[in-house]
Each structure stands twice: as structure tokens, then as C-alpha cells.
Design goal:
The protein is an alpha/beta fold and 462 residues long. It contains 15 helices and 18 strands. It folds into two domains: 137 residues, Rossmann fold; 287 residues, Dihydrodipicolinate Reductase, domain 2 (2-Layer Sandwich), CATH 3.30.360.10.
């Protein structure tokens, strides 16, 4: 006969057993998504810090950083500290840092988190991605995930690994959250306004996207210190496989929304080219704080003091039946009052949708609708169709111009490029929690990197 204490003890044991079994039987989503623990790996690029410019619900405030000792990790920690100490809406991240030579092996062995953020030296990035997935991490990687056709197959295998292990591999595509780009896509979906996307030709593409960037720039109010390897195309990648990642992504995202792309069938590179930006030693000093060029850059130096960086490139290609062109240019420094700029045109059978960001626009991205036909009959239709746009983007208006209309955007929508990293992070966390990433994302990421790496191959052969 059991005594009362014995019965109590037995009940407690049964309860504990039930609790253990219930925890073990939970789905991976239930058991792992209660809290997200971030790990930052080798943060050589300032984008690694920008994903922590805000705090996020259900994300642990302690972030483990694994990196080689040196200026890259110190600059990263300085940026996080600036977010933590800013007067308005400060963050409260706590960085736990390991800087031993075996930092990568240490990260894999300790596995102090379930999401690794990778934004740094692109020469190592594809291998970092692959090994992190094999170790069971979800991966949020800055663009580009790959900078050469040699490593493209490794990236394909990484996506297969992620699928097999039910892990999330995603890249940081901030430009999808820029308001004029979002509106360009929105108006292109209105067949009575845009018509259908033209096919175009190589000489007159249906879609053109051009981006101008600058080595000398301000981030979070300060002149950005760039690592010297940023100017080494073997480590950073050429411009044609770096910034054009955004442009290729937008072509796919806007022109073929919700559609899966098969790079073996849907992508054909027709032509490509590349050229250099020349930088003096004094200009190099201003952005790196180094007094001389490191040895690995000497292969790119002419006349002892001029560094030639292959930061510029152009790819002409067919995506399905549509001719597209993407191009990137890196200047040293922007004109006074200017910054990085973007130009985009989508040619429709009824109108063209054009984003410009020049001096006339005061270097603010501005969307225009230009007519292909009669204005009087079109205007009534346009104003009627505007209602559906305003339902999603309240406050958007139209202003007549000589060639059509300017889309007037309320200031509240212009968050700025740095804020878009938070938007990407929020989307990543949503996919992680709900396991609801759209089916087209993975094949289209693969198609995107096929386009950039094959574009580089074509340009180098030329």
C-alpha cells in the first residue's frame, strides 16, 4: 500500500514524464521559434550592423560575434555601440565576442544561436553559408551570396542543404522596400494603365536598371571607413556581381511577380562588359585610414599610386522573352548634395514607368508615368486606377508633367536605405517563425546569381 508521500512523488514523476514527452513531440517550429538567437560571423561590411539598427520581438538581445581580431570587428562593434547609445530610440544589444584564429570552428562547435548573419568578405561567403547550413544554422546573408561561377554550384548545393534540413537561407534585398520601386511595381500590375510589358531588344531593352554608387560616403552620419579588401575584386567581387544583384533581383521581382524562374530555360546572357574606377593613394587613405596599399592590391596598381578597381559593369540579357539591361557604376565621391542614385524604366504597351534620381529631382528617387498614347482618354482611366494604389499606399497622388504624370509620395514613406535592413530582417523573421517563404524565392535567388556570375564570365571573355 502506497503512503500519501509516495503517491505525491509518483504523481510528480508522471507529470514530469508527460511534460518531457510533450516537449519532445513538438514540431521544430514550435520548439525552436520561441526565441531567435543571432550569431554574427566575420562582420567585414557595415550591413552586418544595420540589421541590428532596431530591436525585434522574440529576438534575444545577446548576439554572439565570431570574427578574426582586427579593425573589421572593431568597426562593427563601434556601430552597434552607436545604436545602443543614440539619444532617440536606443537599442540594447549585448555583443559577446570571440576573436581567436579558430573563430569559424568555434562558432560551429559552440552553436550559441540559431541564425547566423553573414556580411563581409565575399570571397569566403559562399563557403561560410554552406558550412553554416551543414552545422544546422539558419542563414541571413548579405548580397552577393556568390561572386564567381566557380562557387555557383556550391550555392546551389547550399539551397538543397537548407531544404533537406528545413532551414532558411535568405539574402538581404533592401531595394524591394524602396517606395518608388514598390510603386513602379504596383502601377505595372494595372493593365489599364501600363498595358503589358514589352519584349524590347538588346539595343532598346524593355527593362533598364542602372545604379551609381560611391566609395566615399556617409553612413549613420559619419564618413564610412571601408576595409582595404573592399577594393580587391577577388575578395569583394567585381561591381557586375555585387551591386547588380539588387538590380537583377528587381527585374525578376517586378516583371515576373510570383513566378518561379528556371535559369536553365529562362535566362540568356546576350552581352556584358566591365571597366575600372581609378583611385589615388590619397583617396584610398581617406576611406581606409591606411597609409599605403596592401600587397594584395598591388596587382591592380598602375604608376605606383593609381588603384584600378573593376567596380563597373553592364549585363544585357533575356529573361524569358523580355530584354533587360542592368548596369552599375562606382565613382569615388558624389557631387555635393547627392548620394547613390538609381535609374529604372519599365516599358509598357500603354505607358512607361520611369524612376529618376538626378539633379532635377534633387537626388530624391521620383517615379514618372509617361504616356504612349492619347492623354485625354488615358487620364480618366489613370485617376480611376489610382484608387487601388491609394488603398495600399494612402496619400500617394499624381502631378501632371509635360510627358505624363509624376507620382507624388508622402515624406513618411521615404524611410531611407538604412531602415530597409530592418524591413528585410522583419520579413526573414516572419518566414522563420511561420515557415511561409514563397515558393518562388529560392529558384529566383538561384536564377539571380546565375545571371550575375554568367554576366561576369561573359564580360571577362570580351
Amino acid at each position: 500500500m502506497l503512503t500519501k508521500p509516495s503517491v505525491t512523488f509518483l504523481c510528480l514523476c508522471v507529470f514530469a514524464a508527460i511534460l518531457i514527452i510533450s516537449c519532445q513531440s513538438r514540431s521544430p517550429k514550435e520548439s525552436t521559434m520561441k526565441s531567435v538567437q543571432l550569431v554574427t560571423l566575420d562582420p567585414g561590411h557595415f550591413h552586418a550592423a544595420l540589421v541590428q539598427k532596431s530591436m525585434y520581438e522574440n529576438v534575444d538581445s545577446t548576439v554572439h560575434v565570431y570574427a578574426p581580431a582586427g579593425s573589421d570587428v572593431q568597426l562593427h562593434l563601434g556601430r552597434i555601440d552607436a545604436f545602443n547609445t543614440r539619444p532617440e530610440n536606443p537599442t540594447h544589444w549585448k555583443e559577446e565576442v570571440y576573436t581567436g584564429d579558430d573563430f569559424f570552428e568555434k562558432m560551429i562547435a559552440e552553436k550559441t544561436g540559431n541564425v547566423v548573419v553573414i556580411s563581409g568578405n565575399n570571397q569566403k561567403k559562399t563557403k561560410y553559408i554552406s558550412a553554416s547550413l551543414k552545422a544546422g544554422f539558419n542563414v541571413l546573408a548579405d548580397k552577393p551570396m556568390v561572386i564567381s561561377s566557380v562557387d555557383f554550384k556550391l550555392l546551389e548545393d547550399a539551397f538543397r542543404e537548407a531544404k533537406e534540413k528545413n532551414l532558411l537561407l535568405y539574402d538581404i534585398m533592401t531595394e524591394r522596400f524602396e517606395i518608388t520601386t514598390m510603386l513602379q511595381k504596383e502601377f505595372s500590375l494595372l493593365s489599364e494603365v501600363f498595358g503589358t510589358l514589352q519584349e524590347g531588344s538588346e539595343d532598346n531593352p524593355a527593362v533598364t536598371k542602372e545604379s551609381v554608387h560611391h566609395f566615399y560616403k556617409y553612413v549613420s552620419g559619419s564618413v564610412l571607413t571601408r576595409p582595404a579588401w573592399f577594393m580587391d575584386v577577388n575578395q569583394q567581387g567585381e561591381g557586375i556581381v555585387d551591386v547588380t544583384t539588387h538590380l537583377v533581383d528587381l527585374v525578376q521581382w517586378e516583371c515576373f511577380p510570383g513566378q518561379k524562374l528556371d535559369y536553365l530555360k529562362d535566362i540568356q546572357i546576350t552581352s556584358a562588359k566591365r571597366w575600372t574606377t581609378d583611385m589615388t593613394l590619397s583617396e584610398f587613405k581617406a576611406i581606409t585610414k591606411l597609409v599605403e596599399f596592401p600587397d594584395y592590391l598591388k596587382k591592380d596598381i598602375v604608376n605606383d599610386t593609381i588603384l584600378r578597381v573593376y567596380g563597373n559593369g553592364e549585363i544585357n540579357y533575356k529573361i524569358k522573352n523580355v530584354n533587360a539591361k542592368v548596369s552599375v557604376r562606382w565613382n569615388y565621391k558624389a557631387p555635393e548634395g547627392a548620394g547613390d542614385t538609381h535609374y529604372s524604366i519599365m516599358r509598357g504597351t500603354k505607358s512607361n514607368l520611369i524612376i529618376q534620381q538626378g539633379a532635377e529631382q534633387k537626388y530624391v528617387p521620383t517615379l514618372y508615368i509617361e504616356l504612349a498614347g492619347d492623354r485625354s482618354s488615358f487620364e480618366k482611366t489613370l485617376l480611376e486606377q489610382l484608387k487601388s494604389v491609394k488603398a495600399k499606399f494612402p496619400g500617394v497622388e499624381l502631378r501632371p508633367t509635360d510627358k505624363g504624370w509624376e507620382v507624388v509620395v508622402p515624406a513618411s514613406y521615404r524611410e531611407g536605405h538604412e531602415a530597409h535592413f530592418g524591413r528585410v530582417m522583419e520579413k526573414f523573421l516572419e518566414y522563420l517563425k511561420n515557415n511561409n517563404m514563397p515558393e518562388w524565392e529560392v529558384p529566383n535567388m538561384i536564377a539571380k546569381y546565375y545571371t550575375t556570375t554568367q554576366g561576369l564570365e561573359k564580360a571577362m571573355k570580351k
